[in-house]
Amino acid sequence: MIRLNCFVSVSAENKAAALEAAKALTACSLKQDGCVAYDTFVSATREEVFMICETWRDKEALAAHSASAEFKKYVGEIEQLAQLKIEQFEF
């Protein structure tokens, strides 16, 4: 399986819009084949940070997710509003 932790740093003025895009991405992603888990978490200690945590069955499922229209739409929106840092782990 593959786990991605996507840390999103966003200004206060863009936070609501970035979170809405992340929630929409989460809803779409949970329906995709090979999605084991997908959620968005808001930091309790850093106002400007939230995280998207996702787990995929395998590389093929992650690749299909990354190529999906929903991914491109919502990640594009988030990238316009915030900075992303991604950590990837295989287990």
Kindly describe this structure.
- By secondary structure, the chain is of the alpha+beta class.
- The chain has one domain (2-90): Alpha-Beta Plaits (2-Layer Sandwich), CATH 3.30.70.100.
- 44% of the residues lie in helices and 37% in strands.
- It contains 3 helices and 4 strands; from the N terminus they run E-H-E-E-H-H-E.
- The chain has helices spanning 12-29, 59-67, 69-81; strands spanning 2-10, 35-42, 49-56, 82-90.
- A 4-stranded antiparallel β-sheet has the order 2-3-1-4.
- Strand 2 and strand 3 form a beta hairpin.
- Helix 1 (12-29) runs antiparallel to helix 3.
- It is globular and about 35 Å long.
Structure keywords:
91 residues; alpha+beta; Alpha-Beta Plaits; four-stranded antiparallel beta sheet; 4 strands; globular
Topology:
Layout (H helix, E strand, L loop, with lengths): L1 E9 L1 H18 L5 E8 L6 E8 L2 H9 L1 H13 E9 L1
Antiparallel strand pairs: 1-3, 1-4, 2-3
Helix pairs in contact: 1-3
Short description:
The chain is of the alpha+beta class.
Number of helices: 3
Major sheet: 4 strands, antiparallel
Residue ranges: pLDDT <50 for 5 or more in a row? Answer: none
Q: Give the proportion of residues in helices.
A: 40-55%
Shape: globular
Largest beta sheet: what is the strand line-up?
2-3-1-4
The CATH architecture: 2-Layer Sandwich
Quickly name the level 1 CATH class. Alpha Beta
User: H/E element string?
Assistant: EHEEHHE
Task: Compute the average pLDDT.
Answer: 98
| Rg computed from alpha carbons, rounded to a whole number of angstroms | 13 Å
What is the third-level CATH name, the topology? Alpha-Beta Plaits
Domain count: 1
Question: How far apart are the termini?
Answer: 5 Å
Strand content: 35-45%
Number of E-type strands:
4
